[in-house]
Amino acid sequence: MTRVLIRHKIWGETVELTERKRQILRSVVDSYIQTAEPVGSKAIADELGLSSATIRNEMADLENMGLIEKPHTSAGRIPSPKGYRLYVDELMRDYRLSVEETEKMNSALSEKMNELDKVIDQAGKIVSKLTLLPSYSLSTVRAPRVAVKRFEVIFVDSQSFILVVMTTLEQVKNKLIKVPFPISAAQMPVLSDVLNTHFTGLTMGEITQDIIQSAVLSSGAAGALIALVLEFVSEVLSTQAHGQYHLAGEGNILNHPEYQDPGKARELLTYLNEAGTDALAMPEDGSKVKILIGPENIAEELKDTSVIMASYNIGDGMQGVIGVVGPTRMDYAKVAARLSYFAEGLNRMFGGPQTPPALESPKKEDKDL
Amino acid sequence: MTRVLIRHKIWGETVELTERKRQILRSVVDSYIQTAEPVGSKAIADELGLSSATIRNEMADLENMGLIEKPHTSAGRIPSPKGYRLYVDELMRDYRLSVEETEKMNSALSEKMNELDKVIDQAGKIVSKLTLLPSYSLSTVRAPRVAVKRFEVIFVDSQSFILVVMTTLEQVKNKLIKVPFPISAAQMPVLSDVLNTHFTGLTMGEITQDIIQSAVLSSGAAGALIALVLEFVSEVLSTQAHGQYHLAGEGNILNHPEYQDPGKARELLTYLNEAGTDALAMPEDGSKVKILIGPENIAEELKDTSVIMASYNIGDGMQGVIGVVGPTRMDYAKVAARLSYFAEGLNRMFGGPQTPPALESPKKEDKDL
DNA sequence: GGTTAGCACTCGCGGGTTTTGAGTGCTAAA
DNA sequence: TTTAGCACTCAAAACCCGCGAGTGCTAACC
To answer: How far apart are CA A302 and CA A328, in angstroms?
Structure first.
């Protein structure tokens, strides 16, 4: 019985392995990936039904070939980079995505951030960079009545048009809508007209079947487009209505000696990720900058962490909060100064602190409308 | 000489301090904020020109009032939360922002993310959540010729209008433009016409003074608007032309035992933040998913880190890369599967792998245009 | 030949003990 | 009221040591 050797190429060189050596290598890598512990001959022996001595011999060979190595004399083996390479190229079993996984990814893909989100998110990133601390930012709603103020329709080609929607929060959103049947440029004014007369000033809940009915009737050939439009409108209005929460610069926490213990750091980060939105809102006491020191935080997890936050005005009925989280030993003066300056900037950017008269000022610039 | 006591309110109670005690407390906090080390009587004695014994006496008092505490019997003092509170409310010196700081913040505020950025950034976040690893995402340009394909102008009121711009990369951007003088709805078609005949198909560099001149001439009263429009166009085209880089989920690195040493973790993170964009680009070898194991990375900092990345097609001439970074011991099969599935999704979302015929397909949905 | 049992050896890890030194509180003198 | 002096405390660092998982080698076995 002549031993069958299987040939592999790694980084130029070629190595030849018996099927058994392949199995052993695979086991070593698999197990190490799982447990993060060096794997000894015993474990593999059990798995393959051979004695540990045999495995040791084989492993010695694999080690000579540079595929595995031991961290120190008397420990199990771990894969070397070369071993990983061979594993990835030849040994690795295809991982089958579960349905849940694919579904999660699909829905994540189709989920979109709204405009406000993006600004807020971006602001958080900047603050984090500026303060070298993890930052969070959130928007809270004070008057949740959001409606469309104005529709515009732009003809693109026979299969698509652009819908532009201005909300009562002064945001402008748009979408390139593809239509499953041919349309003509002439239908656009009609559609725009119908939309503006029937659907402006209404929140999503106030749009009844009756209203839709009569809108469809009065728009003739363009009636079929109404459903498409409303779908988008619903999306826009609902994502507008509730506050958003973002974290940024989490890694910065590691810059501070009080979080040398990675357990501590992780604990804080996971707390921020999961529950942050509740604990970090700005109390409504008029002040611009708020400092919460250690135990002044309600949340147990923040007991030895300080939070500095500043608020700013977004459009009508919305308020933004941006803040940082750090050790109680933190340069309060410096951080507070930066944060407050930045919040002022945001305030200005969104159009000043006054509740702005409806149509007059363009408040936020709303590029990318 | 009667000692002057200064009264402070903290959390309801009031405490009275001599000026000297205030100075000492301030010194303790300042120094502790700087060094993160408990501060001893000696240091303060030097600073205030008194003997350490005197300071010790004073500190004992401060400790009794609950303003400072010692981590253990024979260590220096650190501020208690109460001490911090008093410091923040009364002792803290205003921090003066330097010009550089304010400038940095101002420019950060005015810097806007373009649409592509946001999608890419968002994708990174999702992947990071999915793989429990830090992720990065970047876009690289293959054909840097970007121009405007089409202009649309929407009248808002006598002082503002919305400009919608579609680029050759199939992105739709818009901006609410405020005009310093009254305009009329009638000017809009003229403006749109002039823009479309004079400026479509041209990169920013190709727009000469001559072209602008003739455009202004042929647009009559609306001519003054041209400059405003071009400013926006220039902004859009320039931010479109170069690749973007984003990191997300940095905190996830802490979930892996090989980064228990927070020094290691920090090193990796700072490297990723600073230099990532160079080291993590996708090589152009046609494959969809690329795995780099430990030393296969060129960068010294990544020598015991593996990178898995997948590429996808964005609009004409642009390619996106999304990847994760983790310990060499990583579940290659699982991560690669998820990443590649996700990249496919992105690919589809942007309109498939083919270089899409100019006007036909709407490729990316480009909501928020 | 390949496989296995047996055995001596290695060396990292966890635990306890010792040493060190910064910083304290107290007392007595200035 | 301030200061010098001194005995005391205690966390952190250095050191030591025994356990045991895992090894390599050899000799017997199939």
So the answer is: 10
